[in-house]
Each structure stands twice: as C-alpha cells, then as structure tokens.
Amino acid sequence: MIIKSLELADFRNYENVKIDFSRGTNILYGDNAQGKTNILEAIFVSATTKSHKGSKDKEIIRFGKEEAHIRTILEKDNAEYRVDMHLRKNKSKGIAIDSQKIKRASDLIGMLNVVFFSPEDLSIIKNGPSERRRFMDMELCQLDQIYLNSLSKYNKLVVERNRVLKDLFEHPENSVLLDVQDKQLCEYGSVIIKTREKFIKDLNEIIRPIHSKLTGEKEILSVYYEPNVESDEFEKKLTASRKKDIYSKQTTVGPHKDDFSFIVRKNPDEEGIDIRKYGSQGQQRTASLSLKLSEIEIVKRAKKENPVLLLDDVLSELDSNRQNYLLNTIGNIQTIITCTGLDEFVNNRFEIDKLFKVTEGTVSSEN
Questions:
Q1: Given this model, what pLDDT does residue 317 score?
Q2: Are 57 and 85 in contact (CB under 8 A)?
Q3: In the predicted model, is pLDDT for residue 98 greater than 90?
Q4: What span, in angstroms and rounded, lies between the C-alpha atoms of 158 and 252?
C-alpha cells in the first residue's frame, strides 16, 4: 500500500499544491510553521476522514474560503485508486472513490491504512484515559468495520442518553426512553468491549519483544485492559447505576470509561510497576514508542500489507538508540517524514528516496 500523489486546494495554508511521493522514504523539511504537518494531516484525513488533531472540517479550510479539497492517488493490491474529499464549512464532507460518491464517510475507512507518529504520542502513557482510548479506537476503526459501526452508534447513544438525563427533571415522561437506550447501549457496547479485549491480547504478543529490544532486554512490558464493566454484566450495572446517572446527569457506566495499563517488570516473577503512575519519563516514552511500533505490525498482520508511516518531527525527540530501532523497523514501508532541517543525522542515517522543501505553503522537490 502506497500513496502515489497528494493534491490540496485551500487546505490549511495551501492554496494549491501537488506532491508526487516515492515508494520509499520521503522527507519534508523546512522551518516551523511552514505547513509540513498540514501535509501529514491531509493524508490522515484522507485515510480516516478525521484530523489527527481532532480539528473540525471548518477549522482546516484555508482562511477566507468556504471549502477545501483533498485528492489522494493510492496503490493497493496492484491497483490504483483515486480518493477525492470535499470539505465544507457548513455541510458534511463529500467523498468519492474513483469518481463514485460514497454515502457514508465510514465506508472509506480501511482503504488506506496509516500509522501517524508525532511527539505528542510519546506522552500517551502519562496522559489521561481518553488519550489511550483514542489510540485504541483509531487503530481498531481502521481495521474492523464492525467495530467502527458499533463505536459510532454507541457514542451517539451516550450523547442522546445524557441529553435525556439532563432534561429528565423537566420531562420525567422521557424516562421510558432510557429503557430503549440502555438495551442498545449494551448491544453495541458489548461488541466494543470484546473487540478491545482481543486487541489487547494481540497487542501483548507484538509489543513484548519490541519493548525488550528497545530496553536491551532489561524490561518486560505487559499491557492490561481495564474495562469499566465486563460485557456480560453491562446491562445489570447500567440498570443499577440509573439513579446515580440521573443525579449526575451523565452515563457513568460503559466502555467510554475504559482504560488500559502498562506494567513493566525486570523479570517475569516480580509484580512490576504501573508506569502510568510510577514510571520515569524515559520508561513512559520508551513504552509509547513500543506502542507505536506495534501499531505497524498490527496493521501488517490484519491487512497482509504495510501501512503508510507518517513521522511528524518525531526523530528529534528520540535518543540515538531509539532512532536506530525506529529506522531499522521502517524497512520497506513507505514513510513520509517531517523535520526542521537536514542535519547530519538525516544525511548520514537515512537512505532518502525523495526530498521536499516546504516554505510558506509551497512544496518544491529537490535532488
């Protein structure tokens, strides 16, 4: 799986630009605030329909414009596809694959698999549970259409249920709606919980050897799923929490409250420490890197092909040992990297296939 080209019109700070990528390593370099990350964001949007920053469509349209366009030419299974995305300020986005409009944005998910790695990802371990859930959801939504649909419906139900809870004092007759919503929440929530359980189990098989190598075989990393509620007890606990939910005016039970922990041991027999709370910054950053590198392998196994790797100025955040491991992992994966300058590290350690200079919303290819 590779991206052959990307065209942007009125996206962020780009008026019009077209970039033809190499199958190998592509470097986008330039000063800060020139638009390098915006290119990676456009690729991420064309793969997942959403910004990695959580930005709304109207926020990524060029200032003073009403709409933006992204066109991505990709190659998959020896066939070429064109994905056109039309972003509008006051309407939902329009998407077409090979000139055929698709009805739902979610139908695009999984066509192009990307792994996005930014400096912010190095803090995923020490950040709050919502960050870790977001990582898990973004990965699973790219790989599993059933999970994507279940999560979308579940999240909408939580919003609707919370609205009913807030209005219940003025409209007590709406309490009958909670019975219907609870049944649907349990249906979609159980799919989410079971899929997350399997994901964490599969993740452990991949992340342990990666983390062991990153730490010189000094640490054993295990990831544990911490469901807010087990799937077979969801309905019972949701019913039991109704009085509490009415009082707090929000849904307090369900997978939207899940988390997962990272336990580091020096040997298999010791209890280990939860590095979310007690780990050093170095341990947290190494575990985060292990997590992102595992993401590459998860996509390979699930899709039987390589994802496209997007590295947003992350190399400067890693020491030489972690840099070496990351570079060795890339292998034959198409990689698009942003950096502020072509320093000695980049020149000496990378086999660069294509080089681009980014300056104030313009991109020029260089030898």
A1: 81
A2: no
A3: yes
A4: 10
Token code pair at residue 307: 């994802």
Report the alpha-carbon distance of residue 158 to residue 149 in Å, rounded: 14
The stretches of the chain forming alpha helices (DSSP H) are 36-48, 57-60, 129-143, 145-167, 175-214, 234-240, 242-248, 275-278, 281-303, 320-330, 344-349
pLDDT digits (tens, 9 = 90+) for 109-130: 889 999 998 888 888 898 999 9
* 29 neighbors 341 (Cβ within 8 angstroms): yes
User: Are 214 and 222 a contacting pair, CB within 8 Å?
Assistant: no
Which pLDDT belongs to residue 323? 80
Question: Residue by residue, what is the 3-state secondary structure of 125-159?
Answer: CCCCHHHHHHHHHHHHHHHCHHHHHHHHHHHHHHH
Q: In sequence order, what DSSP letters do the residues of 232-252 get, joined into one string?
A: GGHHHHHHHTHHHHHHHTS--
The pair of three-digit structure tokens given for residue 289, joined into one six-digit string: 């890197």
3-state DSSP call for residue 86? strand
Distance CA 61, CA 55 (A): 10
Question: Which pTM does this prediction carry?
Answer: 0.90
Ordered strands of the 362-366 beta sheet: 114-117, 308-312, 335-339, 25-29, 354-359, 362-366
Strands laid side by side in the 273-274 sheet: 220-226, 259-265, 273-274
Question: Using an 8 Å Cβ cutoff, are 56 and 92 in contact?
Answer: no
**Beta-carbon count within 10 A of 294 CB:** 24
- Neighbouring residues of 112: CB distance < 8 A, sequence distance ≥ 6: 1, 3, 46, 47, 72, 74, 76, 83, 308
Q: Residue 349's CB: how many other CB atoms inside 10 A?
A: 13
